[in-house]
Design brief:
This protein is an alpha+beta fold. The chain is built from 6 helices and 10 strands; from the N terminus they run ααααααββββββββββ. It starts with a helix and ends with a strand. Residues 21-75 form the HTH cro/C1-type domain. This is XRE family transcriptional regulator. Keywords: DNA-binding.
Length: 194
């Protein structure tokens, strides 16, 4: 008989992530209400994420990263052990936003002393992810499409990228990543802190 998710307990990564989110809020001395005001995320959603009752979406994590002044890779690296200099492909951290069809692989190990990182992104056909703000204003991004086609909207300009195309930009406002299909898209995202 298949075990219910609630009986199995939270996903280990979600549990560590929830604990780290709670720590970050406590370090600043903020209540859930204060964090809700700063992030635009409801108190109940924040509470459920901190208790690992829900798996946070990419959009939710992006908002929290903005409040805490971190990239998503930095936040996710904080729930892992000390990063190694070399991370074999089989050991690279993979995070999935099942609700949006987004899979994110941390290719290069993020480190607090370094400004750049590489991420592999995969979006299923029809996936559409909107971020209302960058995690760090002025964040530099290089988006290189390896397979498929990707639509990226930044500063209200839509860019159509095909296999092999690369888009370079600084992120100051909302962005949107969309895979219109018919095939999935796989791309490399190089992120450089300002």
């Amino acid at each position: 008989m298949k075990q219910d998710v609630a009986e199995a307990g939270p996903d280990p990564v979600d549990a560590r992530l929830g604990a780290r989110l709670s720590e970050l809020r406590a370090e600043r001395g903020w209540s859930l209400g204060e964090l809700a005001e700063r992030s635009g995320i409801s108190r109940s959603t924040l509470s459920r994420a901190e208790r690992a009752e829900i798996s946070p979406t990419a959009s939710l994590l992006n908002r929290l990263c903005g409040v805490y002044g971190r990239t998503m890779s930095q936040l996710l690296s904080e729930v892992e052990a000390e990063p190694a200099l070399l991370v074999p492909a089989a050991e690279q951290q993979v995070w999935e936003d099942r609700a949006s069809g987004f899979v994110r692989r941390s290719v290069s190990p993020p480190h607090a002393g370094l400004r750049g990182e590489l991420v592999e992104g995969r979006l299923t056909a029809g996936a559409d992810i909107a971020y209302d703000r960058p995690p760090v204003p002025g964040l530099e991004q290089h988006i290189w499409v390896l397979e498929g086609a990707l639509e990226v909207t930044a500063l209200e300009v839509e860019h159509h990228l095909g296999t092999g195309d690369c888009l370079r930009l600084r992120v100051w406002g909302p962005t949107r990543f969309r895979c219109a299909g018919p095939d999935d898209v796989r791309y490399v995202l190089a992120v450089v802190l300002p």
